[in-house]
Amino acid sequence: MSYVKVEIASQPECWRKAAELADSPGLPAKGERVAVVGCGTSWFMAKAYASLRERAGHGETDAFQASEFPRGRQYDRIVAITRSGTTTEVLDLIKRESNVTVITADGTQPAAQENTAIVLDFADEQSVVQTRFATSALALLRSHLGEDMDPVAADAEVAIRLPLPVHPALAEQITFLGRGWTVGLAEEAALKCREAAGYWAEAYPAMDYRHGPIAIAAPRRVVWAFGEIPAGLADDVEATGASFVHSRHHGGYAALGSWCGGRAPLDPMADLIVAQRVAVLLATSQGLDPDRPRNLTRSVILG
């Protein structure tokens, strides 16, 4: 079994451990003006958290790619998410900024050395493709906002066992959609498909999808929505001949209640686990190694 398959399956327990760190020093206090930064997957988790924090009334929260952080803008706290702790853009940023809290998997690396650091070493990964570290960082941040992660972890246990809603032989393309905090999850799901499998996957805010991207919807293509969906979207997608996937929609996770014992729809972060599993299947069905994607390394270190 590949590393990434094991790491995907370990997420429920990782999320529970991350939630236990919700009172760690350095996490943003209510009312602080906060920026959250990362690269790639970590940036998408930053976007999800920023939306959740503002929705919870904890204060203005911006998310940036580390390379695009606006110089001169003032924040009470910067949260940097970096699995390796060695990514060049993150290190360049935290060297010139103050009041930085680093969430990382390796406390021995440079990003954690001169900053407040929260180390999720239990969520570190051998696979180049990130899964459990990123979601554990988001679990930590959601718990710090006061969310109960126990039912979310329970949903994750369901997601690990669900039949997959996408089959590689029947789908040539997937578009992931989200609203609010789940836009970041949609972007992360699409990235997993591109990274692991070199697969054509895109992501958009659900309300913006009908303003252009729906033009590529067609038979043998899939539109997969996380969380709340706009009225009429499923019908519009299905009218194109594309398949619509959603944890509460009859055309996607059909008979979800029979899998979950009548439970409510999956938490969107648990739904992301299903998308991660699909990405791995898309890779292995082509004979690709999802642990070692083409052209990628664990950390981007620039000369």
Automatic annotation (TrEMBL):
InterPro entries membership: GlmS/AgaS_SIS, GlmS/FrlB_SIS, SIS_dom_sf
This protein's UniProt keywords: Isomerase
Protein name: Fructoselysine-6-P-deglycase FrlB with duplicated sugar isomerase (SIS) domain
Keyword Isomerase: yes
SUPFAM superfamilies per UniProt: SIS domain (SSF53697)
GO biological process entries: carbohydrate derivative metabolic process
Gene Ontology molecular-function annotations: carbohydrate derivative binding; isomerase activity
tRNA-binding is among the record's keywords: no
